[in-house]
Every structure is written in C-alpha cells, then in structure tokens.
UniProtKB/TrEMBL annotation:
Belongs to the AIR carboxylase family. Class I subfamily. Residues 5-156 form the PurE domain. Keywords: Isomerase, Purine biosynthesis. Its EC number is 5.4.99.18. The gene is purE. HAMAP family: PurE_classI. Pathway: Purine metabolism; IMP biosynthesis via de novo pathway; 5-amino-1-(5-phospho-D-ribosyl)imidazole-4-carboxylate from 5-amino-1-(5-phospho-D-ribosyl)imidazole (N5-CAIR route): step 2/2. This is N5-carboxyaminoimidazole ribonucleotide mutase. Signal peptide: none annotated. GO terms for biological process: 'de novo' IMP biosynthetic process. SMART domains: AIRC. GO terms for molecular function: 5-(carboxyamino)imidazole ribonucleotide mutase activity. InterPro entries: PurE_ClassI, PurE_dom, PurE_prokaryotes.
Length: 165
C-alpha cells in the first residue's frame, strides 16, 4: 500500500506467511495502510528490538505478530513498545500450534499481548480487532466494519442445511 503504514504485520519466518496473509488481506479489504515484514526474535533479535522501539515514532498504532513453536516474538516486541501487540499463534509441525498458543498467551503480568486463535482464524481476527480499535476514531472505517458484520450475519442467516439438492 502507498499510504504510511499504521499497522505492522510481522512474523518470525516467511513460512508463517500463508497464515499471516489472512491478516494482511483483511487490512487490505478495509483499506487500512499496513506493512508486512519478517522479524525474528531468535534469528534477528537486534532487528526485532529496533522494529519495536521505532514503531510508535514511525506512526504505527498496533503490531500484529505471528510466530510458531517457542513463539516469543509477540512478547519480546511488547517488551520494547507500549503499542498494542496482537499475537497470532502459528500452527507448528509437531504440536500443531498449541506450543505457539501457550508461548504467546502466558505472558507474565506487566507486559500484555492480546492473543488470538491458532492459525488463519486468529490472523483474520487480529486484523479485525485492529480495525475495531482504529474505527473508534475513524467513522468511515466504523461504517465499513458495520457493513462487514451485517454481510456476515446475512450470509449466516441465509444458510440452509442440509444443502438443497
Ligand atoms: C518461528 O519458527 C517462526 O515464527 C516459524 O513459525 C517457526 C519455524 O520457522 P522456519 O523454520 O519455518 O523458518 O520463529
């Protein structure tokens, strides 16, 4: 996107992208300027600290951070910024993301990370949550969020089971 980003979407590896693209796609749909980056807590720790430390001054309003396994990225980002950090547990090969979820959600008191569901639902909901935060001071965005909810409700209300033959 051309506009200055207001939401950062970061992840520990490009292998997280198939999940995290759901967050980016959602922000794109709502017209929220955002950036997408690989920032690893254990492979590029200096970059991670620089990213978090500079985020507020660069104009970001929140960071959506996805990580898998020993998923310390969201918590470490949160340790270096007071911006809201929204954590997305990435499904891992062996433990299917339960490791990621527990790593992200079990923050000791004092440094919060808002933690979402494992995988694609979590990535999309993190973006929707960011939209909801921004919509508090953006009437156009608030209207688009209302429309989204209405369309979703209409779709659910028109579902027929079993499906017509
Ligand atoms: C984490 O390690 C990443 O967030 C990713 O989910 C996981 C595996 O990374 P790769 O080995 O696929 O690069 O840092």
């Amino acid at each position: 996107m051309q506009d200055k980003p207001i939401i950062g979407v970061v992840m520990g590896s490009d292998s997280d992208w198939p999940v995290m693209t759901r967050a980016a796609d959602c922000l794109e749909r709502f017209g929220v300027p955002h950036e997408t980056r690989v920032v690893s807590a254990h492979r590029t720790p200096d970059l991670m600290f620089e990213y978090a430390a500079a985020a507020k001054a660069r104009g970001l309003a929140a960071i959506i951070a996805g990580a898998g396994g020993a998923a310390h990225l969201p918590g470490m980002l949160a340790s270096k910024t007071t911006l809201p950090v929204l954590g997305v547990p990435i499904p891992s090969r062996h433990l299917k993301g339960l490791d990621s979820l527990l790593s992200i959600v079990q923050m000791p008191k004092g440094v919060p990370v808002a933690t979402f569901a494992i995988g694609e639902a979590g990535a999309e909901n993190a973006a929707l949550f960011a939209v909801a935060m921004l919509a508090r001071t953006d009437d156009g965005l608030a209207a688009r969020l209302d429309e989204f909810r209405e369309a979703q409700a209409n779709k659910a209300a028109s579902m027929i089971v079993p499906p017509p033959a």
